[in-house]
Amino acid sequence: MKTFTFLMTAFLLFNSVIFAQVGISSDNTSPDPSAMLDVKSTSKGFLPPRMSTTQMYLIPSPSAGLMVFNTTLSMICWYNGTAWVLLDNNDGKSCGSVSYGGKTYNSVIIGFQCWMNENLNIGVSIAGSQNQTNNGTIERYCYGNNPALCDIYGGLYQWGEMVQYFNGATNLTSWSPVPTGNVQGICPSGWHLPTDADWATLVNYLGGESVAGGKLKEAGTLHWMAANATNSSGFTALPGGFRYDDGNFYFHFSNGYFYSASESSAASGWVRTMGSGNTNVGREGDDKAFGMAVRCLQD
Fold this sequence. Notes:
Blueprint: H1 2-19, E1 22-25, E2 37-40, E3 50-51, H2 53-57, E4 67-70, E5 75-79, E6 84-86, E7 98-100, E8 103-105, E9 107-110, E10 113-116, E11 124-125, E12 139-140, H3 147-153, H4 159-162, E13 191-192, H5 196-205, H6 212-216, E14 242-243, E15 249-250, E16 255-265, E17 268-275, E18 282-287, E19 297-298
């Protein structure tokens, strides 16, 4: 009988704890009748869990309404039952600027990513007839060997130069070992080279390959041959063309080519392409010895 009484008492006490309201208050006031948890303070705030975008996406089976502070974007995010979303839509807003190599680069938030909104333009210019080399100096190509075009469209880089020969990677060989995290390459500190998966995240967020190009490209015909873009994302992609492995340059004013930090083979890397004649974003594996534009993504 004593055992039964003890168990019943424990059961009732346990249930009263489970179903009781919780109040946290400096003035010892009772919680509001409508709240399970009521936190009151005039000198301190509520601090949700803090984590990067990568860590946030690794939360297993998040429940609808789950909330975290995203340290990558410095914004509160919540899970709506099917996807993570920002508490406030900050698409098109800046996530800061960075000074690098005597130039200030601005940025734009697109979904949960923060991109530079212009092509990287860093390094010493060399002729298109030369290959960029692992000599401790960042080297760039300017379209048509014209430095003035670098100021508009950014530099063009071979894949090995872009990754700065990290883990032994070159234009002809793969890394060893394959990186498991971000690769900074020629990007400034706090930024990294986008992978093919990063590009896929961007393109999918903007509606897929058939329409994302129109949202990524600069509007108008100041730089693009045809006016079929809105630049609604603020990414401002430009048609800087590319340097072929024979040292010549092609497709300025009509096409933009952007390397990713992902390999499609030992001698080729995944590239995203945009053309003036459509709203597509293409994906192709191209020779690492080509010279292409580079965008950086905030860590």
